[in-house]
Amino acid sequence: MAQAKIVFQSETIDYGEIKKGSDGVRVFEFTNTGDEPLVIKEVSSSCGCTIPKKPEGPIAPGETGTIEVKYDTKRVGPIRKTVTVYSNAEETIKALKIKGKVLPEEVTEI
């Protein structure tokens, strides 16, 4: 039976230690290794501080696509979030993770 199959380059994005207010955009890259067009139906996040953006159209077999994730780096502390991808792939629900730590602004002595 023909089916789309989604394979991510990495299922975890590690922000490492980043400064408060820095660019929070990262990208999950994937390939459709199946033999049917892949349709990403929805991408949701475990909290409002993480905004995922799904591809608009179907991803043809053998093609690559991206899911952009924007984390709100105004929140200081550890990053441990899950981004859930819903699609027509063989594995219909896929959980991706983002992790890291947002450091507070440096205090400069006068």
From TrEMBL:
InterPro entries, per the entry: DUF1573, Ig-like_fold
One Pfam family in the UniProt entry: DUF1573
Superkingdom of origin organism: Bacteria
Coiled coil ranges: none
Listed name of the protein: DUF1573 domain-containing protein
